[in-house]
Amino acid sequence: MSWTDQRARETLHRIFDASVESAGPQRAVLENLPDKPKGRCIVVGAGKASAAMAAALDSAWPDVDVSGVVVTRYGHAVPAGRIRIIEASHPVPDAMSETAAADVLQAVRGLTPDDLVVALVSGGGSALLVAPAGGMSLADKQNVNRALLASGATITEMNAVRKHLSSIKGGRLGLAARPAKVVTLVISDVPGDDPASIASGPTIADESTIGEVRGIISRYKIVLPDTARAVLDSGDETPKPTDLTSDVRIIAAPSLALDSAAKAAAIAGLRPLVLGDAIEGEARELGTVMAGIALSAKIKGLPLRGPAVLLSDGEGTVSIGCEPAGRGGRNTEFLLGLAVALKGHAGIWAIAGDTDGIDGTEDAAGAIVTPDTLERGRKKGLDARAYLASHDSYSFFDAIGDLVKTGPTLTNVNDIRAILIV
Description:
It contains 16 helices and 12 strands. It has 422 residues and is α/β, with parallel strands linked by helices. The strands form 2 sheets. The chain has a 6-stranded parallel β-sheet with strand order 3-2-1-4-5-6, with helices on both faces. A 6-stranded mixed β-sheet has the order 7-8-12-9-10-11, sandwiched between helices.
């Protein structure tokens, strides 16, 4: 059977969908529950998957005294029985993010050694759970978040800054829950699956330091409010591994999603090659690099011959700077960079999307690139390079009808990229 455009598109969608389905919170939570407590079970959490995770736990333990509160992104809530769900803003926090943090901290106060705290953590929790440190206001935290998002810093670097400007992140929630046992169930969306980086590790000891945070701020020329600088100048460090220990379980991760994507590719008759689950960098430059690998495979059969698919996971960055920017996220920017570098070469298609269903702040998970992407854009009067330069990748793919819209998936294991070569 020949590889038509329709067949290539359908195959890429199946590969992407398989990776998302593998990270479903229901099964992941049920397979990783701790022993039931003698006392109460207090459920707290934050992230795009937290409500779905909470619903799974509540239904699994009808005979346990369960209560608690978790916060998720607007549009990601589902009923969770005895566990209260709060919705808040992402990626820039709002007043509900601050309310959620206060309620979560209150939920873990006054516990005993017989009680169990189950923390449900997934990507997006940093913005959803906000407790400004020192004299900082919510507006200060919002300004810091905006500056971080525009800086080009990696997710790990951004979270190091967030932890040191928070009264709940970087292990501080874990300290507040003492003397209860704390078990943290994590759906990872960060390169390397470091649980201390996911949602800024509210229950997990933090190894980053104020000195490192100052280095990040200097390196990316991040302008902080005076109140934030005062917090750093106070020298109040986050809890370190000698201060805090907890039971942490990674229940879904990018590597597992890539395994599922590879299996779906093999079923479709493709040779899968997993390039890695922690690939980071400037999104448009990643597109250029991936285009080079795809062209090598197409023309020379290296690193493998088609029909094949190159799979990767990770999180690119988009450095906007001070210039006006259009619409788009790291996946559509990656894809537009890829398309420009491929120059319409025959036999190469690609899909990239955020597994939570939302690329940046847009309503699309990502998009698809085809051999005629640039040509179809030109017929509509669109200059792909100009759209890439103005960070307006969403508008480009929207105009040619190639956005991928899944709606909220209620999970999040970072970005899946698949490049099909035939």
